[in-house]
């Protein structure tokens, strides 16, 4: 081996080491550019239309409800609207929320030769909302949204009840996301679907509104 070959052999490890170092630095730069953000956190800038829309959603107060599934929807909706901050101290808007749950499953077939019980069902959670201006009580919008969640029915009674409850919880979370989107769109459009004089003042009236709209559809 000549002296030039020896010199080249000594330089090659050094060049390889510097090349690997450069690749590592570039890799770290790429990773640093990728940031992990919360799913429902406020990722908008401090100014601009998106920040203004986020501030309006945070100023919405959700009125109390009196049933378990309705409370699930309300809790998730409050979290989504405020980004985990809870209810606003001085709300600019108020939402009357009414939630109705239906459980659909096939009928059992019992005869002298066969005994067939349903093995699956579908839970439907429907939410009716009325959005009003807290300063004057004027209605901004109203509407109804619904979400379905299928589930399997185990043979064991307690497990079957647990399956229905889990389906209700899943549908409640999805309905809260749908309602948040609907409220954001309504505030953006600032349109009223009905006359302000007919603003419901109770959850029972909000539920009746949802039933009427379902019959029209």
Structure explained in plain terms:
This protein is of the alpha+beta class and 217 residues long. 47% of the residues lie in helices and 22% in strands. It contains 5 helices and 6 strands. It has helices at residues 3-33, 49-58, 68-82, 157-189, 203-216; strands spanning 60-62, 93-105, 109-110, 115-116, 120-133, 139-152. The chain has a 4-stranded mixed β-sheet with strand order 1-2-5-6. A two-stranded antiparallel ribbon has the order 3-4. A hairpin with a 5-residue loop joins strand 5 and strand 6 (139-152). Helix 3 (68-82) packs across helix 4. The longest helix has 33 residues, at 157-189. The protein is flat and about 80 Å long.
Helices and strands in order:
Blueprint: H1 3-33, H2 49-58, E1 60-62, H3 68-82, E2 93-105, E3 109-110, E4 115-116, E5 120-133, E6 139-152, H4 157-189, H5 203-216
Parallel strand pairs: 1-2
Antiparallel strand pairs: 2-5, 3-4, 5-6
Helix pairs in contact: 3-4
Record keyword descriptors for this entry.
alpha+beta, 217 residues, 6 strands, four-stranded mixed β-sheet, 5 helices
Structural class: alpha+beta
Give the overall average pLDDT.
75
Major sheet size, sense and barrel closure? 4 strands, mixed
Quantity of strands, as a count: 6
Q: Strands across the major sheet, in which order?
A: 1-2-5-6
In percent, how much strand structure appears in the residues? 15-25%
Q: Distance between termini?
A: 90 Å
How many separate helices?
A: 5
Radius of gyration: 28 Å
Q: H/E order of the elements?
A: HHEHEEEEEHH
Runs in which pLDDT lies below 50 for 5 or more consecutive residues are 39-49, 191-202
Global geometry: flat
- What kind of oligomer do you see? single chain
């Amino acid at each position: 081996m000549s002296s030039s070959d020896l010199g080249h052999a000594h330089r090659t490890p050094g060049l390889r080491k510097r090349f690997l170092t450069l690749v590592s630095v570039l890799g770290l730069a790429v990773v640093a550019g990728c940031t992990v953000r919360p799913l429902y956190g406020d990722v908008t800038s401090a100014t601009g239309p998106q920040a203004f829309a986020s501030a309006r959603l945070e100023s919405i107060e959700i009125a109390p409800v009196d049933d378990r599934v309705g409370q699930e929807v309300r809790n998730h909706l409050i979290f989504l609207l405020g980004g985990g901050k809870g209810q606003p101290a001085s709300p600019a808007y108020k939402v009357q929320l009414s939630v109705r749950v239906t459980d659909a499953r096939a009928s059992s077939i019992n005869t002298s030769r066969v005994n067939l019980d349903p093995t699956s069902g579908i839970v439907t959670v429907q939410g009716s909302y009325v959005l009003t201006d807290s300063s004057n009580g004027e209605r901004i919008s109203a509407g109804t949204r619904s979400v379905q969640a299928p589930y399997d029915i185990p043979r064991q009674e307690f497990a079957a009840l647990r399956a229905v409850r889990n389906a209700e919880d899943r549908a409640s979370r999805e309905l809260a996301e749908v309602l948040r989107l609907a409220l954001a769109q309504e505030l953006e459009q600032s349109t009223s679907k009905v006359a302000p004089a007919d603003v419901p003042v109770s959850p029972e009236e909000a539920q009746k509104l949802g039933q009427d709209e379902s019959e029209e559809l």
